[in-house]
Amino acid sequence: MNHELLTATLSLAGRKHRDKGLPCEDSSCSVTKNDVSVICLSDGAGASQYTHAELGAKCVVQTICDLMVRHFDAFFFDVRESVVRSIIVAAVQSELTILAQENSLPGMDCMSATMLFCAVKDSRVIFGHIGDGIIAEVTGSGIQMVTMPQNGEDASSTFFITLPNAQDYLRIIRTTTDDAHAYILMTDGLSDLVYDHSKMLIMPVVARLAELACLPTGEKELQLSQTIRSYIIDISPLSDDASIGILYQTGTKIPDMDRIPSNKEYCLRDTNDEMKAVQLEILPRVRKAKEIVTQGITINKDKEKAEENVSVQTTSTENLHENEPQNTINPEPKTIGSLVFLFVGFGVALIFFLIGALIFKYI
Question: What pLDDT score does 157 carry?
Fold first, then answer.
């Protein structure tokens, strides 16, 4: 069954910007073209050094929407996820760098921003997310998380598409729509008030907001604006810029709003269980494996050296007695298998060396 895809996006300035006459540093974009519907949000960095964050956010959403509607299949079917992430980052950073040059800016860093997008073609969907904010999925049975906020050492820090190693933090999810009713993207100005990270709980109001996307164009923008202003922005003089993007599938099951949970148990984190602890735990096994590989390489080298010595001795004998019948043992020639083992051994040893170096870095 084919479902019509409806989209809605909105970015509003929070009071900490609006009351001072400052521009909204969030940006949102929605495009439907080539049988692809894509929505993208971006939250421009708020610190003083990010002087043109709003310009960067607009560039990010425009670049992503254009990229996805033109090359959805390439990004969906390429099995090399690292390549997919690298190309997306390269495309955005290239446009930001060119934009900085055109506006006589020192570089793209002053336009740092987060990025969230959702692109759908037929029954396929691609999500992309770097930084804070959330992407959620509404189904006939309720709401579930697609991607969580990505914060640094504290809740006020995050990761930007402009980072030199942004591809390490960019999350890409490729899946199918299945029983999805709507997808909702929110920047932190909105998600911080409807998502409880201590319980991994998305409030039922998010599902209600999704239903506004099926209203006529002018009415849905008005309803979204009034709702977010009334319940999010206007309640605090320190409210942040807020953006929302909705991709709504008509003809799909609407969840029972009264049955969506409004409370959950706390998700308790074991603060001692961190990646450094995992690295230290596997270190002895890594060392042992490295010794095995190194020993194997040494044995193989010794064998080849012995074979070479036999070959030299045989050649010398032949030169001294070339007119006499010989009764020598011909050395076994090097086989392709031994060469493959040698190269594979060197490669594995290098991998273990790099893993060991990484682990020692954190000790």
Answer: 83
